[in-house]
Amino acid sequence: MMKLAFRLINRVYRKLIRIAVRNGDSEALLEAPGELLPESVLHRRSEFPEELGASFHSEISSHSRIWHAHPERSDLPEWALDNKLNAYKLMAELGVRTPKVFQRDVKLDDLEFVSGSVLKPEEAFQSRGVFVVGGNNLAYQVASDTPNLSEQDVRGMANGLLKSGAILKDLWQREEAILGENGLPAPDVKFYCFYGSCAMVLIRDIHPGLGLKFQCRGRQGEILVSKSHKPSDLSYVHVGEEDFAIAEEISRSLPTPFLRLDFFQGEELVFGEIGNLVGYFADFGVQVDRLMGAEFAKARGRLFDDLRRGKSFPAFDRVLANQSSGTHQ
Fold first, then answer.
1. Could you tell me the pTM of the whole model?
2. What are the DSSP calls for 87-137, one per residue?
3. What are residue 140's DSSP bridge partners?
4. Which end of the chain has fewer CB atoms within 10 angstroms, the N or the C?
5. Tens of pLDDT along 92-119?
6. Cβ-contact 174, 117 below 8 angstroms
7. Comparing C-alpha atoms, which of 234, 239, 233, 199 is closest to residue 219?
8. All domains of the chain in start order, with CATH
């Protein structure tokens, strides 16, 4: 039944696209799925806005198939730098501030529960197993928005994640907690970088027990998507041109069209991690999806041109030569 419904929807889309093409309705065509645009439109692409047919969702889905088909995924930036130790090595090469690491590559039983630190698995997605230990010696689990956890609670929850397979390897690190002005975890600032160009930043702020607020801003500070109670809720998080410049310089040093670069916005910008998979797709909307899809395509062209001209990526090559191994989830 669902299969038939999707086929009918596609037929309706194709019919509407033909009508829009006949009427020269560019605005309507921008709303159409790119994969359904006819060849006649693609041949006349210069007559339409550059976002026509672009889709970040489609681009990142296609790119992920390349990651999984690659026989040596550890050589791809997306996979090599998903390992936090490799990412920190790259930041050291580039002179970018990272949190101080107090323990690394230790078993959960050997992980120390110390206030003012973050406990996290070496490799995991979506903040699985990440705990922030506050000054009151109680912890906050980021993924589930659970505050006031004792050391016993934390170890029990972490063991549960290991047993369930949500975290595959019992290897952990304890690092410096980057805090904001209120003593809570600093806002998380995620730069969506397209090989030297950053078109959007996503700001997340977590208030333990009160949930998550996030907001997507364009390069000029315009609000593209907001999931806070009101747009002004995150106006206290300032992202300046110098912050964009740092993210773009990192992006330009890596041979990939797209990476998400995560930072903490404390007293200064502090590197958090590099992400290759992106959440919040359902909240982006068509406008943002088209914008970032067009940026992805342009980035792929710039990267191809640089590779053809023989550009090298020495900082990343040095990390690859001495990389920490790991199983990616």
1. 0.80
2. HHHHHHHHT-----EEEEEE-GGG----TTEEEEESS-STTTT-EEE-TTS
3. 132
4. N
5. 999 999 999 999 889 999 999 999 999 9
6. yes
7. 199
8. 2-53 (no CATH), 69-84+184-320 (3.30.470.20), 100-176 (no CATH)
